[in-house]
Design brief:
This protein is an all-alpha fold. The chain folds into two domains: 206 residues, MFS general substrate transporter like domains (Growth Hormone, Chain: A); 203 residues, MFS general substrate transporter like domains (Growth Hormone, Chain: A), CATH 1.20.1250.20. Helices cover 69% and strands 1% of the residues. It is built from 29 helices and two strands. A two-stranded antiparallel sheet has the order 1-2. The protein is globular. The two termini are 33 Å apart.
Length: 552
């Protein structure tokens, strides 16, 4: 007997008229027939992670390995002798990578990411997450082939325009990955794991960067196209793994409900949740709530509402943190660090330091994953921005001196790495979480689209401008990025409410009143009407998967 049939068996045999109930009402009939999901379900103080849920949440983060690998590997390619010989400009000292070429090759890729982000929503609605994962894998493979085919036999003969087109195509898949993976996680994960799961995205990004820095180090002395082409070709691994994984993933219950495939949605959720949730009716209640939310979306809110009333504040916060994610020095750390080391007297260690930096970044994101749902968003962001500002100022102050002793030079490397650690502690992963949980339900997709689009625009701008800034200012760019980090501290303290552990209804209440940074902004459940699921015994939607399906 399948899981949907087990649920049906707990209720009375349906009448002939009930048998004719359309599929779109199957969930409501099950929810009414099942017992109240009170203390008997798994929705206690700690949600029970099932093997399939864990696999589904984390397996597709392989796509973020692709993103992290590309960012890390391209930063190394800009300092790779063979790559420079292929795509550089011949000067008096041989081939060199000009600021213009580095800017174009790095920044134009984000045009592809913008296309991927903007097209992800319609594609997911049309095809579903699993088929979109296959599509983005094929797109990624096409882009990698274009990059590899841009090489030629002689120095200075690389087809730079083709390589840029290849990167744009790869970044279309990366844009799809960034949205599709987070949306899939959001629709299957319970809210008690929201911070942990969303922050894991940054862990995989950093892991991809670590793998890339190792590949760059292995081929750092290669003066032919062979070395850099191997580094690029290793990207084939990630889309191939995704295509192998997809057949084992369940469809999102929420997407199945949107297609009126209620029985399939019930079966999918029962596979993702502990058996006790199916037995007690918690799953039927969860699906009924999602069904009601989908019904509300028939009357979609216009884009203008993102800038009206309390939604303006929510949209402003999402845009602000997606912007800070890019303009506090991220590109300095990820894309251009190898080139920066090589051009500032650290040539012998230019491919080694990024490996150390990547390891430290992975270590730093682990406490963030563990603390987001306990310590909260505000403390981690404040600590992260403070660390970024401090170490960027130290880097600029010490590195900007005309003469630097060996201890001062070593200190500059340490400051750079500690800045990276601080960024991974909060400034990198938390914006993804805020972009998912701050918007109101009716505007979540629109607000998220605005935020990710702004993020891509600033990524393009910083990646284009940074080679010129590094050439003109060198270490002193730390004053600029450090100053921006200070504004982020002030902004976070005075404008960002804490959303740790809050259900969607409570987040709505937080934004319905003025924010006071000097007192705890905890909502009072008595201040709002009781909700249907609260009356039926589901003690806290904070632990409900339906909230997880719509909150992240």
């Amino acid at each position: 007997m399948d899981r949907a049939a087990q649920l049906d068996a707990t209720s009375e045999e349906p009448s002939e008229s009930e048998r004719r109930v359309p599929a779109t009402r199957e969930v409501e009939r099950l929810a009414a027939a099942m017992p109240s999901p009170a203390a008997g379900s798994s929705r206690g103080s700690r949600f029970a992670m099932t093997p399939l849920l864990a696999f589904s949440c984390f397996a597709l983060l392989v796509g973020d390995l692709l993103f992290g690998y590309d960012a890390g590997s391209f930063g190394g390619l800009l300092a790779n002798p063979g790559f420079i010989n292929q795509f550089g400009v011949l000067g008096s000292k041989g081939y060199a990578m000009t600021s213009l070429r580095a800017s174009l090759m790095s920044s134009l890729a984000f045009v592809g990411k913008l296309i991927g982000c903007l097209s992800s929503g319609p594609l997911i609605e049309w095809l579903g997450h699993r088929k979109v994962f296959v599509v983005l894998s094929v797109v990624s493979i096409i882009g990698i082939i274009l990059e590899l085919a841009a090489a030629d036999t002689g120095n200075g003969s690389g087809r730079i325009a083709q390589f840029i087109v290849g990167r744009i195509v790869v970044y279309i898949s990366i844009g799809l990955v960034e949205v599709c993976v987070s949306m899939y996680q959001a629709e299957i994960v319970p809210s008690s794991l929201r911070g942990f799961v969303v922050a894991s995205l940054q862990l995989f990004l950093n892991s991809g960067s670590l793998i890339a820095t190792g590949a760059n180090k292995a081929y750092s002395k290669s003066t032919t196209s062979h070395g850099w082409r191997v580094v690029v070709a290793l990207q084939f691994i990630w889309p191939i793994i995704i295509m192998i994984i997809v057949p084992f993933l369940p469809d999102s219950p929420r997407w199945l409900l949107s297609k009126d495939r209620d029985a399939d949605a019930i079966d999918s959720l029962n596979r993702l949740r502990p058996k006790i949730d199916a037995d007690t009716g918690a799953n039927a209640d969860e699906l009924a709530t999602i069904k009601a939310q989908l019904a509300e979306r028939v009357h979609k809110a216009p884009w203008l509402q993102t800038l009206q009333g309390t939604n303006l504040r929510r949209t402003g916060l999402v845009v602000a943190y997606y912007t800070y994610q890019q303009i506090t020095g991220q590109a300095f750390m990820s894309t251009y660090q190898t080139m920066f080391y090589k051009n500032n007297g650290y040539a012998d260690q230019a491919f080694t330091y990024p490996i150390i930096n990547a390891v430290l970044s992975i270590v730093a994101v682990l406490p963030c994953m563990l603390l987001l749902d306990t310590v909260g968003r505000r403390p981690l962001l404040l600590a992260s921005f403070f660390g970024q500002a401090l170490f960027l100022f130290l880097l600029a102050g010490v590195g900007g001196k005309h003469y630097k002793s060996q201890p001062m030079r070593d200190g500059c490397v340490a400051f750079f790495m500690l800045f990276s650690v601080s960024y991974s502690l909060g400034g990198a992963p938390v914006p993804y979480l805020l972009g998912a949980e701050l918007p109101t339900h009716a505007l979540r997709e629109k607000t998220s689209t605005i935020g990710t689009s702004i993020n891509v625009v600033f990524a393009f701008a910083t990646n284009f401008a940074l080679p010129y800034m590094l050439k003109a200012m060198s270490f002193r760019v730390g004053w600029i990025f450090g100053g921006i980090s200070v504004t982020a501290i002030v902004f976070t303290f005075f404008f960002l409410p804490e959303t740790k552990g809050l259900v969607l209804e409570d987040i709505d209440e937080v934004f319905s009143r003025p924010f006071n940074p000097f007192r705890t902004n905890t909502p009072n459940p008595k201040a709002r009407p009781r909700l249907p699921h609260e009356d039926t015994g589901l003690s806290s939607r904070k632990e409900s998967g339906s909230e997880g399906a719509s909150a992240v």
